[in-house]
Write a structure and sequence with these properties.
Length: 101
């Protein structure tokens, strides 16, 4: 059983790592937009922003409903990163368990 689950867990961890970076990129890009550094009227930029929004917003939106903004600071991405980190650590512990047994 563990022989099959170890690679599956590794793939899930890799997907979580990619999603982690997409959230960080989305947060940085939102700051750059807020400071008017990125031109959102550019077609390639708007396509990238749309992709980042569509990928990250379904996970961030439920957290935003429970966590208010603090003086314009959105803590929802940070909380999502903590949740992803926790899930990743648990999956790695499970992988180690299956690997050793």
């Amino acid at each position: 059983m563990g022989g099959f689950l170890v690679p599956v867990i590794e793939v899930v961890v890799a997907i979580l790592d990619i999603y982690w970076w997409l959230i960080i990129i989305q947060a940085v890009v939102s700051w750059l937009i807020a400071f008017d550094i990125i031109n959102t009227r550019s077609r390639p930029v708007s396509m990238i922003l749309d992709f980042l929004y569509r990928v990250t917003e379904p996970a961030i939106a439920p957290i935003r409903r429970f966590v208010p903004n603090f003086n314009g600071l959105d803590l929802a991405p940070f909380i999502l990163l903590i949740i992803i980190w926790f899930i990743r650590m648990e999956l790695q512990q499970l992988e180690l368990f299956f690997y050793l047994h």
